[in-house]
Design brief:
The structure is a single chain. By secondary structure, the protein is an alpha/beta fold. It is 56% helix and 14% strand. The chain contains eight helices and five strands; from the N terminus they run E-H-E-H-H-H-E-H-E-H-H-E-H. It is globular and about 50 Å long.
């Protein structure tokens, strides 16, 4: 029985926005792991990266993920790098349906540009955001695909349309299980 839906994908793919819509459609709780990490750390993720480093962030992210995946009837929006640790992927897959929200790199670049300074892995300024996105996607793309049960392209669609598709596919997947 699938008790949760976990949204994975690159930054800017729509995990938080679609997740809220999806939770509303299902009447479930919405859980954003990045927000929980910020609450526990007492600071923003960019500040946490600067203060403690990426490894400390990933440790907190894993701790949060392992806790939230014990719940049920929730939509879980993960951080873009959650799939970098196998224990995170195992916890997400064990908790329910894992949906990879993907978008074309140019769409991701446009979306993340709306929140400058909020994406610690894209703040180096040494190369354009699109170049950094393409490099990170080359590394993470196969991990997202391996971790997910289903893939949904968010590039040219509204969050509501994406959420409705996920609900349809969730019910279909549930009937098959």
């Amino acid at each position: 029985m699938l008790d949760n839906i976990a949204l994975i994908g690159f930054m800017g793919s729509g995990k938080s926005t679609v997740g809220r819509q999806l939770a509303q459609l299902l009447g479930w709780r919405f859980t954003d792991t990045d927000s929980l990490v910020e609450r526990v750390a007492g600071c923003s993720i960019p500040t946490l990266f600067v203060r403690d480093g990426e490894s400390a962030f990933r440790d907190r992210e894993t701790e949060i993920l392992l806790g939230v995946t014990a719940g049920e009837r929730q939509v879980i929006a993960t951080g873009g790098g959650a799939i970098l640790r196998e224990e995170n992927v195992a916890a997400l897959r064990g908790a329910g349906l894992v949906v990879y929200l993907m978008a074309h790199p140019d769409v991701l670049a446009e979306r993340v540009s709306r929140r400058p300074g909020q994406r610690p892995l894209l703040t180096s300024g040494e190369e354009p955001a699109l170049t950094q996105i393409l490099r990170l996607l080359a590394e993470r793309g196969p991990l997202y695909q391996k971790a997910c049960h289903i893939l949904v392209d968010t590039s040219d669609r509204s969050p509501q349309a994406v959420a409705e598709e996920i609900v349809r596919r969730f019910h279909k997947q549930k009937r098959v299980s």
